[in-house]
Each structure stands twice: as C-alpha cells, then as structure tokens.
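Lab notes, practical 5.
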Amino acid sequence: MRKKEHQKRERRIYSKIYGTSQRPRFSVFRSNKYIYAQLINDEKGQTILGVNEKNLKTKKKGKEAPTKSSKIKNTLKTEQAKLVGELLAQKALKTGIKKVVFDRGPFKYHGRIKALAEAARKQGLKF
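Output from the prediction step:
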C-alpha cells in the first residue's frame, strides 16, 4: 500500500516539475540515515551542484552522545537537514542562482524535507 502511494505521488509531482538553466530544479532525496539536495538543469540533464549530509561535520564538542530515544534521533536529523539546506542555498547564491523549482520527490512536505526547504529560503533562495 505504501509503495503504491509513493509511486502515485512521484508521478503526480514529476509531471509538473522541470528545471531550466535560469531556474534549476532543487531536488531532495531522503533516506533513513541521510538527506541529499542538488540543483539540476533538466534541459541539459546536468547536476549543477549538490550537497549531502555525509559531507557535513555535524559533530559538535560538548554535546552528549545521542541516546536511542527516537525524539532525540529525529531532532538531530532535522538539524542536519537544516544545515544541508543552508549550505546548498549559500553555494547556489555564490554561483548566481536565486530562483529554483522545489522538487520534494515522492516525500511528503514535513519533517526533514520541510526543515531543509525552510532553511534554504531563510538563506535567500526563492521558490
């Protein structure tokens, strides 16, 4: 059942979204561990730039090690998603990209996806 709903959302969203060189597609992928974001020019089929959570140094000194509590785990993932959004927006603005088309993929707009999008907006990216 979940897979069918996932595929329906995927088809509905991808039929409406298309990135150009002036307004690239801001694509987000979320796995259980990491979150990835990239800007894609669909005219050329080219990735302009990409950021993922693996490359970020999110370990801060003085913080306690996370416990197995799901609330703490999700909070850390959400904070990391915000960092990915901020970093992508900063890189995009440096390359001269100010407007993008947001592509959440088959993922619902809440949680880590929403945190990433709002962080990118706060940095000045328009979508």
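Observations recorded by the TA: Confidence is low (pLDDT under 50) at residues 58-62, 64-69. Residues 2-53+66-122 form a domain with the Nucleotidyltransferase; domain 5 fold (CATH 3.30.420.100).
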